[in-house]
Give the backbone structure.
Amino acid sequence: MFSGVFILFLQCLPAINFNRLKMLTINLLREQTSFVIERLKIKNIDATTTVNLVLDLDRRRREFQAESDAIQAELNILSRKIGTLMKEGKKEEAEAAKTDISSMKERQKHLSDALANAETEMKNELVKLPNLPHASVPPGKSAEDNVVVRSGGEIPQLYENAVPHWDLIKKYDIIDFDLGIKITGAGFPVYKGKGAKLQRALINFFLNEGEKAGYREIEPPIVVNEDSGFGTGQLPDKEGQMYHASVDNLYLIPTAEVPITNIYRDVILDVTELPVRNMGYTPCFRREAGSWGAHVRGLNRLHQFDKVEIVQIAHPDKSYDSLEEMVLHVEGLLKKLELPYRIVRLCGGDMSFTSALTYDFEVFSAAQQRWLEVSSTSNFEAFQANRLKCRFREKGAKQTTLCHTLNGSALALPRIVASLLENNQTPEGIRIPAALIPYTGFELIS
């Protein structure tokens, strides 16, 4: 069982309650400075300079606040004293006290400005720090250091004249990259005939399977504002990868994670509502689609692609149960599509800015003889919730607690389509997996 593997791994780790430590707040930096710096080294980040700068700004901020509070206390005393002096007919002393008050208020104003500046600077530096990796995240610098958790399915043995999907789509006239270049540019393919029907079939299949698993379907906007991008961590970290409509200051979404998670920005949930399970189909847009070459030919990397995303808002004590549930759901989809797959735990150097723990799903592309990533399923713990102010209240509690947020691709279509086409090609045509036939209405692309 997946849970057994994960639990066994965790039993070998230090007894630290990571679930309660993982939001990068100023309190955590103050109280666990060395811990934060050491954990971020797992992501190959030396945060010493930034952490020290944040702590210095915090120290100045607190000094300004303390001095301002002391002045306010003295102002309160002087204000009461003026009333007493006026009643006693000590006008000159009262006027002198008023002069002192004026001077003190001017000083307080300067302190208020300095405090606001220090707070702004501190927050600007704090958001540069990524999420802390979970204790189970292995060290490493790149995908080569990821850890395979398990694999499933059988790698097919293709017939002698099998070809990669970029040749198959031309042979059967189902996807046209040249038309996409004509209309828009590289990385924007046009799906035609059975290629378009296959896209629609996969989307409906994924949504129906998600509904069976308890996810509520959401159809969100595909452009978001700056606050939404900040809330889920795309801004300020990934603005160069997002298409930006500068006139309106809106961003095309890189994933449905952004609008669906932001539904809960500035929301206080009741504990009985957790976990919240939502899903949504959207087109996704990535400006930076990576370098071009043989390894990213065809559908392997696009600027626009379709994806079904699953999102959970979970209780901090149960978010890793939610992560396991999501992993099992994605694995179930790949089994039903009859695709050979493996699940890998990402090392620190291959993780995203926002993630605490990520499992990638890869399917084997038989014609290309390589593994293709088709899903990332992640627990962000309280990192996004801290930015979103997404909270919940325990029964009878006065204080609120930050939720944990999770999401996963279930699934991204391009590489799924590439693998389906390649792995199921026969001399007669491309076979459609049995689970998809009710959605496609045909058994073979020929």
